Every structure is written in C-alpha cells, then in structure tokens.
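About this split. The held-out portion is used to measure sequence recovery: a designer receives only the structure tokens and must propose an amino acid at every position. Recovery is the fraction of positions where the proposal matches the reference. Here is one held-out target exactly as it appears in the evaluation file.
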C-alpha cells in the first residue's frame, strides 16, 4: 500500500518521476485553440466528500489509502473519512490516477466539496495540477481566451460547490453515494433511472427514497426551523454561541467530529418541550433470570432493551415522534438505540426490531454492534434508525439520572443500578428487595403524562415477572 500522502502538492515538480516524464506542454493540450474553437480532451474528475449519514455536514480525512501518483480502479477504496459517527472507506467511481490531493489527512471538508482530483491518464496530470492550483486559490476554473465569436460555445466551468449549486459535471451523472447504493439495493431501485440532486448530479439517499416512494424524513435543522416561534429564542439563547474569554493556563482542545455532532444534537434538543417521570421497579426475579442467561452471553442491557421493546409494542405512542411540530409519526418498527461510550465520544447502536427477536439473537446482534462501534465501523443504518433510546449507567453504581432526549425520537429511558431496599408489603410486613429506578424523558408534544405512566407500569410488570422475556 502506498505511504500516507504529504501535504497538498500543486506543482509538477513534486510528481513522481514516471508522471513528470509524461507531462506535455500546456499548448499541446486543452489550452490550445484551433480554427477559433477550444479543443479540450482532458478528463479530470473530482473525488467529493460524501454524505455518510443523514446528519453529516462535513467530514474529516483520517488517511489516504491512495497517494498522489497512484493509479486506482473503479470501486477501489481511496480514502478513509471520519463522519459524525464512524470511520468509513470511500471508493472511487472511476479508473484513473490520483493527480492531486486537495484535502490532506487530518483536515476537514464540507459534504460535496472536492477532496482530490483524478486524471484519466498521465497526460492529464499537469492539467489536474493547474486545476488544483485554481481551487486552492479560490478561483473558478476558466478556459484560456478564445475568439469572441466562440465565447458562447465555450462556457466557463461551474463555480465551486461551496459558492453556488453546480450543474452536473461531465462523468458524474448517475453516480451514487455508498449509502444511496445500499438503499437502492434494499428497495430494488434502478439507479440508472434516478436523477441525482446532490453536488454535481450525484445520487443521494434521499433521491433513492423518493424513487422508491418512501416519504422523506425532515432533517433536524428543518424541524427546528418549523417549530413554534417560542422555540427559536431557546436555541438562540444557548450560551454556547458566545465565545468566552480563555482561562489562564488552560489548554483548549477542539471537538472531534463525533463530539461536535453530539454537541449539535444536544443543543437541538433544547428546542423540544420535554418532561420526566421516574418509576421504582423490583428486580429480584430479573436478577435471577440474568444469572441463568448470563453464561449464554446475554447481558443486562439486552434484557432491558427487550423489556422496553415489549412494553412499546403495547404503547405505540411512546415509540412515536414529532418531526414537523404539528403531527405524530408512528413508527412501524421498534428499534431500541442503546447509548455506548466510546473513546472520544458517544454513539447509540440500534437493536433493530427488538420486540420480534429473542434475547439470544439480540445478544449476538448487540455484541456485533458494540464491536463495530468501538472500531468506528458502524454503518449509518446501525446508529440512525432508533425509535426509542435506552441509557444504562447501573453498572457504574449510579442509582438515578436524567437523560437528554435525542432529536427525532419521542422518549429516552435512563436506568439506574439495582440496590437492596427495605420495602413494606400491603400487610405492613417489611422485607429487603432489590429495586432500581428508571427515569424516562419524553417529548410532551406527542407523549402525555398518562401515556408515560401507563408505559412504565407495563415495563415494570415485565421486569418484575420476566419469564415472557425468554419466549
């Protein structure tokens, strides 16, 4: 494998010898006019920063798998990008030579921005370097002067995607992002018949969903904008917007991409009117069940997730959400997102259809999800499809805490530790039983107090008589 790329090099003298020797005079290629017409044969394509998730606005280059001067084939992984949730390989859609790396490892770029230039052959490399120089200087790529009568026949190439929406560039029409290709396969959508609305005509996941007849999900930003007017001052009043003076002797460490995404989501949550309900639950029988199934790889988190999913099946309003500020979105699936702390951030892998799978299959799925989460290899659907979130700090001895509602969901459950507690029965006799306290934070636009109380009663019955969890 090629060594990691050096910082961006834009001169032909920095190319490998085998590419320098192939350089041709500028006048011998696209910069020459012939009989008053511009002759442009070079095929230089841009590798864009892809949208690896629905919430991703920019990505950070972790490493380049291909260095400047390397020849790559369509489908080869050329770069590793850190999105707001995971590190993912990004493939190229064309054969060619990596002529110029525009965004070196360790730097970030917005979604849709060019991060490298791909030349079709060695002869196009000098032209790619010239284009890279123009992009680095913030100038749009322009053709050399041509006779006035042919000015209309030779339009200037489109401006940078960051400046204005660009038309479809040559060689990019019909190209789909990795997530769009995955969705197309799932929904059996022919990408050749889909019109891309992304940068330079690229097909986005939203384009595939539209072609499949799936109702698009509003983005969190759009939801916030459509919220009631009173919500706007709340978000605007967050002190995070103000830059505080530095503390003498302190060290400032910028957020990672994941930490920035967590911060953004937490700020967005402030626009949602929430309320909290706590409920004590006796866990003696659950603890006994856990001791029986623990040798088979079942964790307490999986048992709690399964119990929550079974309760949600009986109370679908708690599994619903409000996405536009004026309607309910009832989810047909019960997907339990579970908060997991990883190095440098927080992520919520999702147990899909948790109400339909047994605890043993759920445990295997959970083991795989945690492994991928710690390696930062989760796919977008692994962490962005949750309908209800579970956060368990009981293993740390925490007896109670409140959780912040994630954007786009109706409720989140915070589970504390199970501890010996003196309780009195209906006849006045005292005994010691294990009890845990769960606190649920819910969106008051869709979930009311009576709804949440009824859900917690059902959840408590399942926990206190957990045999149904093994069915």
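Reference sequence for scoring:
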């Amino acid at each position: 494998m090629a060594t990691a790329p050096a910082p961006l090099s834009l001169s032909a003298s920095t190319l490998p010898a085998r590419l320098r020797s192939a350089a041709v005079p500028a006048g011998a290629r696209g910069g020459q006019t012939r009989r008053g017409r511009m002759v442009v044969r070079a095929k230089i394509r841009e590798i864009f920063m892809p949208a690896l998730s629905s919430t991703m606005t920019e990505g950070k280059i972790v490493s380049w798998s291909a260095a400047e001067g390397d020849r790559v084939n369509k489908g080869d992984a050329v770069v590793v990008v850190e999105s707001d949730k995971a590190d993912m390989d990004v493939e190229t859609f064309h054969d060619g030579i990596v002529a110029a790396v525009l965004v070196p490892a360790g730097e970030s770029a917005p979604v849709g921005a060019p991060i490298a230039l791909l030349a079709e052959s060695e002869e196009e490399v000098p032209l790619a370097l010239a284009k890279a120089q123009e992009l680095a200087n913030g100038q749009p790529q322009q053709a050399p002067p041509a006779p006035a009568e042919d000015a209309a026949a030779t339009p200037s190439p489109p401006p940078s995607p960051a400046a204005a929406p660009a038309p479809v560039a040559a060689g990019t029409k019909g190209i789909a992002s990795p997530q769009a290709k995955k969705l197309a396969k799932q929904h059996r959508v022919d990408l050749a018949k889909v019109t891309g609305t992304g940068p330079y005509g690229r097909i986005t996941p939203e384009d595939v969903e539209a072609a499949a007849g799936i109702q698009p999900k509003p983005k969190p930003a759009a939801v916030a904008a459509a919220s009631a007017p009173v919500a706007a001052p709340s978000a605007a009043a967050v002190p995070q917007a103000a830059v505080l003076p530095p503390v003498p002797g302190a060290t400032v460490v910028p957020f990672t991409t994941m930490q920035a995404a967590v911060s953004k989501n937490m700020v967005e949550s402030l626009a949602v009117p929430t309320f909290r309900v706590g409920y004590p639950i006796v866990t003696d029988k659950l603890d006994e069940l856990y001791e029986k199934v623990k040798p088979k790889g079942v964790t307490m988190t999986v048992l709690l997730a399964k119990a929550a999913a079974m309760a949600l099946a009986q109370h679908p309003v708690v599994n619903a959400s409000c996405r536009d500020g004026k309607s309910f979105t009832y989810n047909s699936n019960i997907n339990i997102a579970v908060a997991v702390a990883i190095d440098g951030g927080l992520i919520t892998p999702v147990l899909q259809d948790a109400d339909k799978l047994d605890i043993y299959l759920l445990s295997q799925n959970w083991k795989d999800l945690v492994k991928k989460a710690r390696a930062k290899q989760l796919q977008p659907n692994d962490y962005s499809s949750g309908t209800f979130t579970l956060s368990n700090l009981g293993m740390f001895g925490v007896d109670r805490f409140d959780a912040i509602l994630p954007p786009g969901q109706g409720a989140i459950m915070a589970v504390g530790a199970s501890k010996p507690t003196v309780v009195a029965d209906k006849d006045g006799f005292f005994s010691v039983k294990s009890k845990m306290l769960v606190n649920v934070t819910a969106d008051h636009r869709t979930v009311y107090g009576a709804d949440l109380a009824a859900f917690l009663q059902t959840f408590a019955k399942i926990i206190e008589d957990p045999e149904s969890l093994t069915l």
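Annotator remark: Residues 1-41, 139-173, 219-239 have pLDDT under 50 and may be disordered.
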